Structures are given as C-alpha cells and as structure tokens.
Amino acid sequence: MTNSLDTRVPTAEQLLPNADGFGLRSWLILITLAGATFMTGLDYSIVMVALPEIGRDLSFGSASALQWVATACLLPTAGLLPLFGRLSDLLGRRRLFVLGTFLFTALSLVAAAAVSPGMLIAARAGQGVAAAMIAPTAIALMTSVFPEGPRRTRALAVNGALLSLGFVVGTIGGGVITSGLDWRWTMALLVALGSVVLAGALTVLPRHDDVRRANRLDVPGAALSGVGLVALVYAISTGTDAGWTAAATVGSLLVAVVSLAGFFLVEARHPAPLVPLGLLKRRTVKWAFLVGTVTYGMCGGATLLLTLYMQDVLGWSPLETGFGFLGEGLAAVAGGAVASRIIVRHGTAGGLLTGLTVQALGTALMVLLPANANTPLLLATSAAMGFGHVLSVVSFVATITSGLSEEERGVGGSLAQMPLYVGAIGTAVLAAVATSTGGSVLGGLHHAFLTAGLVTAAALPVTALFLRRRR
Questions:
Q1: How far apart are CA 471 and CA 285, in angstroms?
Q2: Phi-psi region of 16 (alpha: psi -120 to 50; beta: other; left: phi over 0)
Q3: Burial of 107 from C-beta contacts in 10 A (0-12 / 13-18 / 19+)
Q4: What is the pLDDT of residues 185-198, one digit of tens each?
Q5: How far is the C-alpha of 467 from the C-alpha of 295, rounded, in Å?
Q6: Global pTM value
Q7: What gap in Å lies between CA 244 and CA 238, rounded to an integer?
Q8: CB pairs under 8 A, 24+ apart, for 372-377?
Q9: CA angle 153-299-356, nearest 5°?
Q10: Exposed e or buried b for every residue in 423-458, given b needs 16+ CB within 10 A?
C-alpha cells in the first residue's frame, strides 16, 4: 500500500504543462527550495563577518565564547542531518521543510532581539536544528518534483550556485550592514528571507509529498550518528585554536570514532536502519561522497586562507575583503548557469572532471599572489576556484541522488549535504599547513594553496576510475 501511495508524488511534467522547459510553477518551486539553501549559506557567512560587532554589543567575555555564536548553529546542523533526512522520508518532506523554515525564521527573530550572550547562542543552536530540517528535505523535494535528467540537473545547478552565492553575499552584506547599521539587521535579513521561503513552501510545494510511511525510526542509530558527527565537527572546528593534542580535542575525536563505529554496527543489524548500509555501499554514493568532501574541504579551506591573505597580508578591511570575493560569487553563478549543459552533454562524471580540474588550477595558481595587491590575479584565481567548485558540487549531488527510490530520497538528501560539514577536515588541514612552515605568513599561505590544488587534483583519478558510467 505504501508503494502505491509513493508513486503518486507528481513530477514537474505532471505539475506543469511546459514539457520542454521550466514553467512558472516549476520556477516558483525551485526558487522556494533554492532560496532556503541560499538562506542557510548566507546565515553562516553573514554571522562570521558580524562576530566582532556582536561581541562588543553583547559583552562576550572572550573570543572563544564569541565563537560559539557560529559553532552553536553548526554543530546541531551537522549532527542531525541523518535523523531529519530519515524523518522526512517517514513523516513527509513538505511537512518537515515547512516546520524547519518556520523555526529558522522565528529563531532568527529571537536572535535579532537577543539581550545577552546566552540568549543569542540558544537562538543560534535552534537555527542549527532548523537548518538540519531544511537542508536534506530541500534536496529530497527537488529529486521528487524534478525527474532524473536535464530538469533535475538544472534545478541542482541553480541550487548549487545559490549556495555559493549565499556565502559570498553574506560576506559582503555582513560588512555593509555592520559598517552602516547594526549587527541585528543581519538577523532581520534572515527573517525576511525566511518569510518569503515559508510563503513559497505553503503555497507552491506539492502536498502529495506529505505521505506518511509506516517504518519505525532507528533511535539508537540516530543517537550514535548525532553524537559522533557533533563530536567530529566540534573537534575539527576547535582543534586549530585549542591545539590538536588538547584534552578536549582528543576526547572529542575519540567520542566521534567510538560513536560512529557503533553507528555502523547498529545499522548492520537494525531492521529499519537510519541510513541503509546498502545505500552507503553504492558506487555512486560512496565515491561521490568522497569527492564531494574533497571539493568542499579544499574550496572552504582556500576561501578561509584568502580571507587571511586579504586582511593580514594586504591589510584590507572586512568590507574590502568581502568585495574581494566578488569574482568567486559571480563565477559561482556562471558555474550554475552552465553546469546542466555540461552534465547533460558529458554526464555527471564529465562535470566532476571538468569542475575539479578548474578548481584545482585556480587554487594552485594562488601561489602567485604577491605581498602587494594584484586585484586582477586575485579575482581571476578565486573565480576559477568558485566556478569549478560549483560545477563539482552540482555533479556530485546529481550523482548521489541518482537512482534513489522514493523512500530513500530524504536519506540521500542528507548524504548529499554531509560533505559540506565533513569537509571542514580539509579546512583544518590547510590551516595547519599554512602555520607549519615557520616562514612568513605569505609563504605559509602559498604552501597551503598549492596543497589545496594538489588534493583537489587527486580526486580526478578517483572520479575517472569509479564514477564514470559503466557500459
């Protein structure tokens, strides 16, 4: 009975009369789902830029305490992705997406009105929980509404471009808002965006995707995966500052290893696992997950290093630094615009090979960045990295979500989002490389940029060997 209900989820062709392109409602659905992705990307970067102003206004006692404004949102998002991905398959994706968007919007309003550090951090933690509801369900809804092929690829391309654009717009917008207004306006902007996305979710998303399924929830698996992922991301996020041999860092890593090992043991025996191991063993899932972790980790790490380069080497202000990422943002939009054409013509493996190559070259060429500003070179190299990264992201998400059954779409959506957080390992590695040379700041950055380019290039043979479609 469940399967017969599942087959009633309408595709874009059933919803829309325009079979050759996107009709009005198709665009409204895509704008709603991709708008949620843009909002979560914007949230992270705009808050990072506003941290100094937040610390002064709310009288945070230390830099480590202030960092929890960002970390409190990041940890629950990473830890709860598998749980909410599975819940979306059991309870209905539209229902969970609407709930997540409502909570994110309401908690953004609470954050804007915060009068103490504790109130703000609590609101940020709630935003992280809401983001964990939004991220996998947005991808799952896309794969339900847009059938596999050119339409889905185009939708994923728009989504990937807006995710990257959200980070860049947040960096620029955070500088503009905190320079001319007040940090609370960054949260007010999220309230406005959340309200628009919520209105779209309530009016244009198909209600057919609220089908309930009778499978029970894997509570032990949810607990173990949540604890393991939170511990892992916490160790990665704080290890660079606290030290990799610090008791908190080592303890967090041990908790992560034990919890995630226990998770896989539980999944192998549970009759209704949170994440079916058969899904993880698929060639398209496990290798695309690895490649996705590489592209996210190396691009995220290089972007952080570019921030250090512009501020510590060139002496740019946060606002000037934000505009320094304009090339990367525009290239992300361009990458999203052409991604579907490249993938339709050359396949997802061809898109990955092209994207990884361009990202690797752009990142490696950052070794040429001088001690004095060379803005054209900075914009060109960061644009190449951003273009290749978005093309890679769209390609690996399309790979992971291909061939999923209706009851696997939510889990697949969570797996497609997870590399964004696991990729923080790459950021930590590049930061360690930049500080381990013992020479000048610029010399350390050059070594790290070259490392990022080489690691990205190392994903090329993996893609060629394991992700090319077998004849």
A1: 18
A2: beta
A3: buried
A4: 989 999 999 999 99
A5: 15
A6: 0.86
A7: 9
A8: 372/314, 373/314, 373/316, 375/324
A9: 55
A10: bbbbbbbbbebbeeeeeeebebbbbbbbbbbebbbe
Q: How far apart are CA 462 and CA 360, in angstroms?
A: 14
Dist. CA 447–CA 430, nearest whole Å: 9
For residue 117, give the amino acid letter.
P
pLDDT digits (tens, 9 = 90+) for 2-48: 343 343 444 444 444 444 456 788 889 999 999 998 898 888 888 88
Q: What pLDDT does 21 receive?
A: 58
> What was the pLDDT predicted at 5?
36
Q: Which two tokens stand for residue 146?
A: 């847009």
Query: Residue written as tokens 């007010």?
Result: 188
- State the Cα–Cα distance between residues 38 and 56, nearest whole angstrom: 28
Tokens 């628009």 belong to which residue?
A: 196
Read off the amino acid at residue 395.
S
Asked if pLDDT for residue 93 goes beyond 50, the answer is: yes
